[in-house]
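Two folds, back to back.
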Amino acid sequence: MTRSRVLSLSFNQDQGCFTCASESGLRVYNVDPLAQKLYTEAVGSVASAEMLFRTNIIALVGGGKNPRYDEKAVTIWDDHRGEPIIDITFAQPVQAVRIKKDRLIVVLRNQVHVFSFPNSPQKLLSFDTRDNPRGLCEVSPFGSTLVFPGHICGSVQIVNLDNSQPGQTSSPVTINAHKTELACVAVNQSGTLLATASVKGTLIRVFDINKKTLQLELRRGADPAKLYCISFSLDSAYLCASSDKGTVHIFAVKETELNKRSTFKKMGFLGQYVESQWGLANFTVPAECACVCAFGPNQSVIAICVDGTFHKYVFTKDGNCNREAYDVYLDIGDDMD
């Protein structure tokens, strides 16, 4: 199989599958066991792709060198039919798409639009945002929490989709999470926890969405880094993060006593720095190679990288972390059983 440049990677809502958008088309993989479930060149080169759980519905945004679909449009692809069934065009390029069973969320540079879904999508809500070139936006698969950048540097807007009706002027709640621009945001499955990281990349902050309070401050490292991804486990007990340092960090969110603390904490002369909690465990992937991470079964973490590599590590509560699987997913052929 000819290698093609990977443009983006994304896990589905249950973290059991991932999409690979590339110059040669779209691939969909099962995570455990690793198997390619779809490969199609019919969509042209694809900038990003989002699955709707494990269904045949995939939201695409065209991009790359040979796109079939517009970068200013969201195309809903039905894999059973092998053709698009919905196409929504905008005045500017689409930065990201998020999808729920009853909502389609489209992210532009300065706006977030919420549509009904899947039958005859209608625009329900629109929100203005700070300039958002990364397309930062997340929605809880279960529950009704939608998060995206606020108007103030480092802030996050939180919308309850159940309480926001078309025509209503309900202002989103804003949390001032960082002093510098946001790099990553994540919400847990039920939409009760928010995790954020800034472009500085040293700290990850976890907020209680209902109380609008800071719950945890987790330290990735002392040196600045570009964070690619932060992700909660399905049960919200853990959080993982990947960066250009080539290290995937794993933190405990519920049993926080499992996280490492600085040996200087009791001395106090380092100030707030030592109050942050360090990772429970970590493992390495290729440095400076963008990758996304998520949790697999039985206390495992999966990292998939744009260089085509797949990494699976199993961690224990005492901080041990061992590699269980390594593969090159771009070299795996079709498995349509």
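---
second:
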Amino acid sequence: MASFSLNGPDTAARKSEFRNRKPKPKLENQDDSELLTVPDGWKEPAFSKEDNPRGLLEESSFATLFPKYREAYLKECWPLVQKALNEHAIRILQDDIACDIIKIGSLVRNKERFVKRRQRLIGPKGSTLKALELLTNCYIMVQGNTVSAIGPFSGLKEVRKVVLDTMKNIHPIYNIKTLMIKRELAKDSELRSQSWERFLPQFKHKNLNKRKEPKKKTVKKEYTPFPPPQPESQIDKELASGEYFLKAHQKKRQKMEAVKAKQAEALSKRQEERNKAFIPPKEKQVVKSKEASTETKIDVATIKEKVKKAKNKKLGALTAEEVKLKMEADEKKKKKK
């Protein structure tokens, strides 16, 4: 439950003052460029209590139902909750800080695809989200079907763009690269007034999911206004071949003859396949060249002489060895005596 209360007369007076206000006249010597540009180092003056002495004009209250036996526990824990929330709620009340809540639950219909894209925004161990926080100077929290962010207005604008592009299947790394380039370009005073399109990368979307072509392609026939010819019936075929006028036993005989002819063809094919195993392969005929025959003639006489010389050498070597052995044996016998 939530209830809101507004101070009636104060708000009505303020609305009438706002309507009756007239725009300030433009100076003659003032250019439009001077109105649009903001000088370097300029900051908006802080909003203090003196600017709003009456306090907040809007009051909001909410109530939550809980069981009665938990009342004592909640009273004990409530100071701790207030103490923990004071550190986080102070930042949102600053003048140059705003907040944005982005609903992403309805952007993707498929649940599995939604979970993958949300995880892509967070990155491995939260690295993508941390890089986005450093570049935009915003605190970002991804929870369930929403993405909440706290920070300056310019950073919140970039955060919303990155989140929506991620849900549209554009990887956040592309936007992070552009943000890094923009941050470096903003440091240069000469490039601030120029267009940055030539420096920013141009990423083209590639559709990798190509449609699979069917294996059997059906070719469309040419259109004709006339219907196709009627196919012949079995009676028409019999009339054309003359079988229609044959008697029953003649038709039966024809069928038997056709069956026997098919069987004979099958038997002949089988017999041919069996006989192939007994047919010897054709041998290649070796043709002797005449030049090789003349070159390879053997001289028998020279071979015989060579064999005789080798035998004589071996016999001579054996006899000399035998003589030496006899001489050694004789010397040994004399020594023993």
